[in-house]
Amino acid sequence: MEYKQFVFNPIQENTYVVYDETREAVIIDAGNFSERDDAALSVFVSGKGLTVKAILCTHCHWDHIFGLDWVAKQYQPQIYCHAQDLPWIENFTHICESYGFGERAVAYPTNFYSNGETISFGNTELKVLHTPGHSQGGVSLYCKDAGVLFSGDTLFFGSIGRADLPGGNELQLINSIKNQLLALPDDTTVLPGHSISTTISQERINNPYLQ
Ligand SMILES: [Zn+2]
Ligand SMILES: [Zn+2]
What are the tens digits of pLDDT across the range 46-86? Predict the structure, then answer.
């Protein structure tokens, strides 16, 4: 499994293209916002000769789905999210207008995650861990073979996601992290939805929210 990280949109969100030797790929969080973001994504995908099979939303806050409609039209992938985050998709157009992001379209999911399911593409498997607290439908995606966790806005380097948006719950968020993410192997690389990567052991030892 290999991945490419992009930093997109005014909120500096991390979008990941995950692929393997079969050239099948998934996009984790389509946050591409501008024509420049779209071009960066499509140049990478075509340059590597990738077939985008699916978009996997860690959650459906606006900064993680700005590019959902564009990617859906460009690649016709399956679109996965957790059913409990559907209200964020339904309200996306309104949120964009009220926050000054202009008139933007959204694509609807084709599949809803169930907790613990495995999503496969090429020779790669990603396990879905439902980790609510930042949003009710927040998930983390774990690739055991590569020792990599895509944590969305649940766990960050030295921090955790905000819990003050609708559906947020800090105690639930901390429990999600402690019970499901800190249970992963120490050397697991954590690739979050914002900022730089970290590891499970680094966060277990140093993250001030998890002590
Ligand atoms: Zn978020
Ligand atoms: Zn975010």
Answer: 999 999 999 999 999 999 999 999 999 999 999 999 999 99
Q: What is the pLDDT of residues 141-169, one digit of tens each?
A: 999 999 999 999 999 999 999 999 999 99
What ligand has the least distance to the C-alpha of 165?
1
* Pair of tokens at residue 50: 């990738």
Instruction: Report the pLDDT value the prediction gives residue 87, as an integer from 0 to 100.
Output: 98
| E strands present in the chain | 2-8, 13-19, 24-28, 51-56, 78-81, 111-112, 118-121, 124-130, 139-143, 148-152, 155-156, 159-160, 189-192, 198-199
pLDDT at 80 (0 to 100): 98
Q: How many domains does the chain have?
A: 1
Full residue range of the structural domain in which residue 11 is found: 2-210
Ligand 2 centroid vs 200 CA: distance in angstroms?
A: 20
CATH for 107: 3.60.15.10
Residues within 5 A (CB) of ion ligand 2: 63, 153, 193
- The rounded Å distance from CA 12 to ligand 2 centre is 8
Distance 66 CA to ligand 1 centre (A): 12
